[in-house]
Amino acid sequence: MDRYRRLRETALVLFRKCRESECLSMGMRSYADLADELKPAGGEGKPDCRKGCSHCCVVHVTVLVPEAYSLASWAHENCGRDFYEKLKEQAARLRWVEEEDRPLMYTPCIFLGEEGECTVHPIRPLLCRGVTSLSEKMCRDAIAMSALGEPISVVMDLVQREHYDKAFKSAAEGIEKAGGDARGYELTWAVLKAYEAILSEKEDNTPA
Ligand code: SF4
Fold this sequence. Notes:
Elements: H1 3-15, H2 21-37, E1 62-64, H3 65-78, H4 81-94, H5 102-105, H6 126-129, H7 136-147, H8 158-177, E2 184-186, H9 187-205
Bound molecules: iron/sulfur cluster (SF4).
């Protein structure tokens, strides 16, 4: 079976009748593991990406609803109460920022750690998985030049990029068939909404 058809059908099975945070979150993690497993070999050059290099983590990232739940449930389990306050503040600040203006704000992703590491690396969004760079210098220059209104391209592994773009699209198609919300949302806002839904699920389950 074609790998993207397999991913689409997997998403349909995982997200059918799946509306609660745990189901969405665990479903997304299984889906992303399969997307990794099905990644085609090949691609051009050796990525220069490494832990601590985070030039690209100031851009707009689009996530699907189950991805937001996966990230929010991780944060709920692993981060303190101040994470929620920071999340609310950052989501409000970025809410109406256009995608192309986001790098100009130079606001690091809410999940970027103090040493430039992605704190959610094993469960990072599909579109983050697709981004690689063959040159750290190019990434640094691209962000600096976009602030001056002169965007430049970064050479990346296009096989990997295309694979995760298609995996994202296949997930959205499966979710839509399953009757869920298949739209993409800005990461910070989507995680805030999922985090609040998790808080309210926990409150509902607290014995009176
Ligand atoms: S989720 Fe991780 S890889 Fe993606 S933008 Fe945030 S810190 Fe960077």
